[in-house]
Write a structure and sequence with these properties.
This protein is α/β, with parallel strands linked by helices. It is built from seven helices and ten strands. The chain has a single domain, classed as Spore Coat Polysaccharide Biosynthesis Protein SpsA, Chain A. The radius of gyration is 19 Å and the shape is globular.
Length: 226
C-alpha cells in the first residue's frame, strides 16, 4: 500500500477503511454480533479509536489474531458459542459488502452448509511457471474469483479447522479448508464492486465508488416531488 499505516486504518472519505466495512455489518439485519480479529498490538487502538467512537455496538469482542490469516480465524472461532448457527467470515478491507450479498451467502450456507461469494473471471488466464513462459491457457468459463463474505454452518467450519490442524494443512481462505474436509462449497454470485483494498489503485477506485454511492443518496433524498 506504500504507507506506514496498515491498509485497514487508512482513511477513505473521512473514515478508516475498516470502519466503512464494520458499518455495513452493523446496519445489516442479518448480522447478530461481530467478533473482530486484529493484530495483538492493535487491540487497544481498535477498541478506543474504532469501536467506541463509531458506536459499533454489534462488536461483542475484539480478539488478538495470529501470524497468518488462518490462525486469526481460528482464534475467532474459539470465541463463538454453541448458540451460533452460521458463521460469516469477512475481510476488513472489503467495505462494499451489501445486504443482498450477505442474504444470498447466508441463505446458501443454511441450505448447503458452506457458501462463498465470488465473481466469474473476465480476463484470459495464463499459467506461468517459474521460468516465465506460458505453459497453458486456462478455460475461464469455469474460473471464479473468490471473495468474502464466506458463510458456513458453525459445526462444519469448526470441523474443517480441526482437520486442517491435524493434517498441517494451510489454505488461502476458509472455503479451501472446508474443501479439504471433503465438504462441497457452493459458489454464490458476488459483485465486481466488492473489492479488497490492497493497493493504492484499489483505494482510488474505492473512493470513486463511495462518491458514486453518496451522489445516488443525495439525488434520491433531494429530488422534488411533482
Amino acid at each position: 500500500m506504500q504507507s506506514p499505516n496498515p491498509k485497514q486504518y487508512l482513511f477513505m472519505n473521512g473514515k478508516p477503511v475498516l470502519v466503512h466495512t464494520l458499518l455495513r455489518l452493523q446496519k445489516s439485519s442479518l448480522i447478530d454480533e461481530i467478533l473482530l480479529v486484529v493484530p495483538e498490538g492493535d487491540l487497544f487502538f481498535v477498541r478506543e479509536s474504532i469501536a467506541k467512537p463509531y458506536r459499533l455496538t454489534k462488536i461483542q469482542n475484539i480478539i488478538a489474531g495470529g501470524k497468518e490469516r488462518q490462525d486469526s480465524v481460528r482464534n475467532g472461532l474459539a470465541e463463538i458459542g454453541d448458540q451460533c448457527d452460521v458463521v460469516v467470515v469477512h475481510d476488513g478491507v472489503r467495505p462494499f459488502v451489501t445486504e443482498e450479498m450477505l442474504s444470498r451467502v447466508i441463505g446458501a450456507a443454511l441450505q448447503f452448509g458452506a457458501a462463498v461469494a465470488g465473481v466469474p473471471v473476465t480476463d484470459t488466464v495464463k499459467e506461468v511457471p517459474g521460468d516465465g513462459y506460458i505453459s497453458r491457457t486456462l478455460n475461464r468459463e469455469t474460473l471464479w474469483l473468490a471473495q468474502t463474505p464466506q458463510a458456513f454452518q458453525r459445526r462444519i467450519l469448526q470441523k474443517a479447522y480441526r482437520k486442517a490442524a491435524e493434517d498441517d494443512f494451510h489454505g488461502t481462505d476458509d472455503a479451501s479448508l472446508v474443501e479439504h474436509l471433503g465438504t462441497p462449497v457452493k459458489m454464490i454470485r458476488g459483485d465486481y464492486r466488492n473489492i479488497k483494498i490492497t493497493t493504492p489503485d484499489d483505494l482510488v477506485l474505492a473512493e470513486a465508488f463511495l462518491r458514486e454511492d453518496e451522489g445516488e443518496r443525495f439525488l434520491s433524498s433531494s429530488c422534488p416531488e411533482y
